[in-house]
Structures are given as structure tokens and as C-alpha cells.
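User: I'm putting together notes for a lab meeting next week and I want to include a structural view of one of the chains we've been expressing. I don't have a solved structure, so I'd like a prediction I can at least talk through. The sequence is below, exactly as it appears in our construct file.
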Amino acid sequence: MQTLHAIFGLAWKDWQRFVRQPFLLVVSLVMPLVFIFFYAIIVPSSATNPVAVALESDDTPALDFVETLRSIHSEEG
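Assistant: Thanks for the context. Below is the predicted structure for the 77-residue chain, given as C-alpha cells.
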């Protein structure tokens, strides 16, 4: 019960601060949205860029490397 009292106390303190300084509420909501927006732009573009490989050998390790590059995919992209 004491933990809930402390949580509500902190929430009340933050709410009072937001009421006194509305700019803090704007910053608290806008900044995470800006970061989410940038993350949404960067991740798909970085996950789908093509890669060129100059294969100058028919050795097994070289072919395995190229096959590994073909099979790599991003879960986020």
C-alpha cells in the first residue's frame, strides 16, 4: 500500500508541475514523437540498402559469404 501511495504522490507532483508549466507537457509528448518519427525513417531505409560484392573467386568460403549476405534480413525493416 505504501508503494501505491508513493506512486500516486509522484504522479500528483508531476501533474502539478505540468499545470504550472504547460511547456513541460508539450515537451514530454512532442519529443518522444519526434524520436519515433526519425526512427521510423532511418530503420527501413538502412535495412533495405543493396550491397554489391565483387566475387573474384569460386572458393567455398567466398560462396558461403555471398550466400550469407543474401540470407541476411532485418526484423525491424
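A couple of points you could mention at the meeting. The two ends are 44 Å apart (CA to CA). The first helix runs from residue 2 to 20.

User: Perfect, that's what I needed.
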